[in-house]
Amino acid sequence: MSGYFAAMSSAEVLAELAEQNPDVVLLSQDFGPIGSFSARFPQRHFDLGISEQNLVGVAAGMAHAGKLPFVIAMAPFVSMRGFEQIRDDCAYNRNNVKLIAPFAGLEAGPWGATHHAQEDIALLRTIPGMTVLSPADPNESQRAVRAAATIDGPVYIRLGFLSPIDGYDAGFRVGAAVTLRAGTDVTIIATGSCVNTALMAHDVLKGSGIAAAVINMHTLKPLDRVAIEAAARGAGRIVTVEEHSIIGGLGGAVAEVIAELGMGRLTRVGIRDVFCTEVEPYPELLRIHGLDVAGVAAAVRAAVQ
Amino acid sequence: MSDPATIAALERRATALRRHILAPASTYFAHLGGAMSCADIMAALHFHFLRLDDAACAPGQGRDYFLMSKGHAVTALHACLVELGHVDAAELPLSGRSGSRLAGHPTKRAPRIEFATGSLGHALSVGIGIAMAEQLNRSAARTVVLLGDGELQEGTVWEAALSAPRFGLERLIAIVDYNRFQAGGSVDEVMPLEPLADKWRAFRWNVDEIDGHDMQAIVGALERVPAAKGPTVIIAHTVKGKGVPGVEGTGRAHYTMLTDDEVKRTLAALEDAE
Question: The domain spanning residue B207 has which CATH number?
Answer without folding.
Answer: 3.40.50.970
